[in-house]
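Thread: quick sanity check before group meeting

JM: Hey all, I'm pulling together slides for Thursday and realized we never actually wrote out the predicted structure for the chain we discussed last week. Dropping the sequence here so it's in one place. If anyone has concerns about the input, flag it before I start.
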Amino acid sequence: MFKENTIRLGIAPIAWTNDDLPELGGENTFEQCVSEMALAGFTGSEVGNKYPRDTEVLKKALSLRGLQIASAWFSAFLTTKPLEETVEAFIEHRDFLHAMGAKVIVVSEQGKSVQGQAVPVYKAKPVFTEEEWKLLVAGLHRLGELAAEKDMTIVFHHHMGTGVQTTAEIDKLMELTDPNLVSLLFDTGHLVFSGEDPIPVLKKHLPRIKHVHLKDIRPEVVARVKEEDLSFLQAVKAGAFTVPGDGSIEFDEVFTTLAASDYTGWFVVEAEQDPALANPLEYAMKARRYIGEKTGL
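JM (edit): ok, ran it. Output follows.
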């Protein structure tokens, strides 16, 4: 299905230890996490809060297991804080990822985000003003320029509980930003959780998609999140997300569309769950089998 050497498969450490909810998987070590990633058949990882920040130490630990760093999350506050605060933090983040050999930098706008707050994720979702959109676009252009200095690309992560969550908001961001400076991260789970159809988003913005998160949902849990006004973190703990092949999303058209395109880069399985309820190795292996069956990768 996919041309040879175009797709690399990674998995996020958030299934082992949750960055937003450290009590989830607090007992799981970095060494266990990366060892089980390799054992499950993945060759890449994003960066979690237990990963060593000394690049030589991290490189050695990963090379022993045949792993590479695909990217890492960066929280921008372009709509709520002075630009230079985000720029300073971004340069440090960029340089770390560059040293690790990554080519893309995952950027999410956390200004006004409710994803970490104890409020209903649907009802409390922020909506940007036109002035905030201008700040976001100008800031992303600046980050894109800084990434380009290292021959890297920023990929914007649409996300539940933020000002860029819906299809309309993704469309607006793509319309307002320079395609040479701002690319898109495509995340199946966040789109379906938001009530969107991921396929039109994928097809419309395919030329700008430079990173893919493969995430599934449990629709019965998502329905409860809406009915009971749960927060995003409550939704995670309740099991709203799961790995591809374990939920309700049909990935066939996602894979065939990407295979027919010029997409090259990472597919990263990212499914934050409570590891006490969803054994990370078991679910990593389940995801790897599913992707192999559907794509031949």
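AS: nice. The longest strand covers residues 104-109. The CA atoms of residues 69 and 101 lie 7 Å apart.
JM: adding both to the slides.
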